[in-house]
Amino acid sequence: MTAATFAKGLEELPRFEWRGVPYSSWLYRVASNLVARQRRRPAWIELAPGLASDEPSPLEEVEKNDRAAEVRAAVRSLPDDQRQAVGLRFAGEMHNREIAEIMGRSEGAVKLLTFRALTTLRKRFGAPLPEETRRAAGLHGEAHRRRPPILPPDLAEGPG
């Protein structure tokens, strides 16, 4: 602070006017102003990369909350049975068999309800549909389903 006071004093020396008060009083006033300014303005602290927060920024939090609200609204717009199946599957973290028992439907019906709900949501949010994902991966039509049958180890090696 002393060095800053003298530097500022030298810088402002042309503005110093003699008013019957010693120069040292004026210099004390310069020091007082520097201290007051420093107290008003918090010092800037550089954080090392390892000390920076891993917490999401306020903007990221707002975007995340907005996206969650969009998803909730989209799920609310689904037909009742699809909404129930998706809610139990993802919010309730249940298996299809458990959902089928609760809804009084077959496990296949629950799979179909969930598939239809997810397809609707994917279309609404512009996410690729399962068929588009397979095409992008280079799997066309039925080719991805044609796999050689899995044989027991003793038959897979061929006759002895």
Key features?
160 residues, mainly alpha, Arc Repressor Mutant, subunit A, 8 helices, rod-shaped
Characterise the protein shown here.
This protein is mainly alpha-helical. The mean pLDDT is 79. It is rod-shaped and about 100 Å long. It is built from 8 helices and no strands. Helix 1 packs across helix 2 (23-40), helix 4 crosses helix 6 (107-125) and helix 5 (96-103) crosses helix 6 (107-125). Among the domains are: 2-40; 70-139, Arc Repressor Mutant, subunit A, CATH 1.10.10.10. The chain has helices spanning 2-12, 23-40, 58-76, 80-91, 96-103, 107-125, 130-136, 153-156.
Shape: rod-shaped
Q: Given the helix and strand composition, which structural class is it?
A: mainly alpha
Order of helices and strands: HHHHHHHH
Average pLDDT across residues? 79
CATH class of the domain at 70-139: Mainly Alpha
